Write the structure tokens for this entry.
Amino acid sequence: MKTSKYLIFLVSLAILVGLNSCGIYKRSDVKDNPVNVQDRVKKNIQEGRGVRFGRGATRGGDFDFASSNPLWRASIEIFDFVPLTNASYSGGILITDWFSTENKESNNTRDLKITVKFLTNEIRADAIDVIVFEKICELNKCKTNKVQSKLEKELKLAILKKATLMEKDGFEKYYEKTGKNKGRILDIKGRK
């Protein structure tokens, strides 16, 4: 009886050692794992780890990539004259850096910052929200205000017009027209 328990213990120990060498158990070092919970969650998401329950467990999410979203592409093209501080497609926001025209008076400056919020991927009047901020500095005293002007409406209209043209003209050449892959995006790299 005592011999069989000893034998079972040795076999179990051999199996554990064998499984350890197969890579099931991976030793973790403190420097490789963040201490903060939010940082660990972010790292696990980046590495594709995690558990999904319910509807999301069987398939991944639906993503519309920035290159195929006409609103996003139109906004990037409209704001190509100014540096962007934040261009987060997944977050649905585009923020420009402070910019201004040349001013001959060095004591007074007026800078603008524009924020575009994407509310939907569809091209319609309520799909985006354009906000303009103004920073006026007089002798190193600056005030920042949200500005409601026709610039917001003009930018929104320009983005919507450009997105409509892009959707109408630009995407038809990238889709298969016939066959079993009808409606799917072509592999442009291999074709002319």
Q: What stands out?
A: The chain is about 30% helix and 20% strand. Confidence is low (pLDDT under 50) at residues 56-64, 185-192. The first helix runs from residue 2 to 22. The helical segments are 2-22, 37-47, 70-78, 150-170.
